[in-house]
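REQUEST FORM: STRUCTURE PREDICTION
Request ID: SP-0412
Submitted by: Lab K.M.
Chain count: 1
Length (residues): 248
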Amino acid sequence: MFAIAVRGLRKIYNGKAAVDGLNLTVPRGSFFGFLGPNGAGKSTTIRMLTGLIPPTSGEIELLGMPLAGNEMAIKQRIGLVPDESLLFDRLSGAEFLEFVGRMYHLSRPMARQRAEELLELFELAHEQRKLIAEYSKGMRKRIAMAASLIHRPELFLMDEPFEGVDAVGARLMKDILQDQVRHGATIFLTSHVLEVVERLCDHAAIIHEGRIVAEGSMADLRAGSESLEDVFVRTVGGREYEKLEWLT
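STATUS: Completed
RESULT:
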């Protein structure tokens, strides 16, 4: 059984396909990188997977269930770290995590206990009374990831989870995610930092102009001596550097 199975997925905006007939499977227990240039359809795909926007056509299955008609049951089993942090700025970090825990039907004492433990884990305990509105971008990413963990989901959908996070925070977040995969969870993430994907992920797909142009295990994608960056640039048709005379 796949953690994610997508067939013929399309999303049309103003007559243009942002996602155009996407077919994709993500094995359970994998660390899956979803790559593509700006505007390729990565964020649109994640928004459809989470039910934030409806597809124009196509089918989505998450954790063996069709998304259509099972939205609430599926959302109880997934964790989301969105590109633009959908956080409540007027809550403190502790209040926000406890609120999220209650939304996932944790008892109040359990939600409070897990919130405290997650704040400590993400090195935010000393800032737990600070309003999220006062958080830096990196802190917002940390609290968003903490919130995605509080109900112990089976599947994580993450859009640029390391963007704006310093090296220490990013290392901590990577270690936590790798530990989740070791315990059977599935991670599906987008990232523009190919070195991160190459180091973390065991499977990847590259989307370009709304379509999958390469997919497979990391070993298969990097067949030969190519790096993931080499594969990416070759696949999406990156231009060679044209020197400017006045810069030489």
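NOTES: The chain has nine helices and ten strands.
Reviewed by: T.R.
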